[in-house]
Amino acid sequence: MRKGAETRERILEIAEASVLAKGFAATSIEEVIAEAGITKSGFFYHFKDKNELARAMLRRYVEANDRLFDDIFERGRQLSDDPLQAFLISLKLLAEIMADLPNGHPGCLIASICYQERLFDREVRELTTQSVQSWNARFRAIIDGIARVHPPCQHIDLDDVADMLSCVVDGGIIMSKALNDPRRLERQVLAFRGFVKLVFTPAAQAVMPPPASAVAAE
C-alpha cells in the first residue's frame, strides 16, 4: 500500500473509532489530524470536508461488512448442501465473531449515522438507506432459498424474517454496549438462529404458536 493510501486508511480508522465512541458531532477534524500525525493540508488532500469523510467511512464500513457476510455464508454453504443447515451454521459462526465485541465487530456505523442524520448530507443518508436495503435483500435471498426446500411451518412474512437479522445485530450491539456485556450480542444472534430453526423445521410445527389472526378468529 502506497504512503498516501496508508494515510487515508489511517484517517478513516481514527475517524470511525471516534464516531462509534462518541458520535459524529463530537468528532472533530482537528482531533483526527492530531491522532493521525498529519497536517491540516494533508487531511484536506484526502477529504475536502467532514461529509466527504463520512461518505468514505460509510463505504469502507459497508465493504467490510459485505466481506464478513460473504465469508461467513460461503463457509456455511461449504459445510452443508442443505440451505437451512448452511444458514444455521453461518449464524453460529456469526455469533462467535460477534462475541468478540469490539474486536469482531466494533459497532454499527449505520446506526450512529441514523441517530444523527441531520448532520449529514443527502448522499450520506442515501448511502445509508441503500446499504440497509442491500443487506436485507441479501438475507431475503438466503431465506427464499431455505423456503423453497423447507416451506415455513406457518404463514410468515419472509421479508420480516430477513429484516430481523439486521435488527437483531444492531439491537444486540446497542444492548451489549449499554450493559457492557459483549455476550449479549452473541446470544441475540443465537436466539435468532433458534427462531429460524423453528420456522423452517417441520418437526417444530407442533410446538409453534398459532398465528395471531387465528387466535383472534377464535
Key words describing this protein structure:
Tetracycline Repressor, domain 2; 218 residues; 0% strand; mainly alpha; 2 domains; 10 helices; Arc Repressor Mutant, subunit A
How many helices in DSSP terms? 10
H/E element order: HHHHHHHHHH
CATH topology of the largest domain: Tetracycline Repressor, domain 2
Cα distance, first to last residue? 66 Å
Using the alpha-carbon principal axes, give the shape.
elongated
The name of the CATH architecture of the largest domain is: Orthogonal Bundle
Stretches where pLDDT is under 50 for at least 5 consecutive residues are 204-208, 214-218
Question: How many beta-strand runs?
Answer: 0
Global Rg? 20 Å
Mean pLDDT: 86
Structural class: mainly alpha
Spell out the CATH superfamily of the largest domain: Tetracycline Repressor, domain 2
Biggest sheet statistics: none
Beta-strand proportion: under 5%
Output the CATH class name of the largest domain: Mainly Alpha
Helix content percent band: over 70%
Kindly give the count of domains: 2
Structure overview:
The chain has 218 residues and is mostly helical. The protein has helices spanning 3-22, 29-36, 40-46, 50-79, 83-98, 109-115, 122-149, 158-178, 183-200, 212-217. The chain is 74% helix and 0% strand. The termini are far apart.
List the helices and strands and how they pair.
Elements: H1 3-22, H2 29-36, H3 40-46, H4 50-79, H5 83-98, H6 109-115, H7 122-149, H8 158-178, H9 183-200, H10 212-217
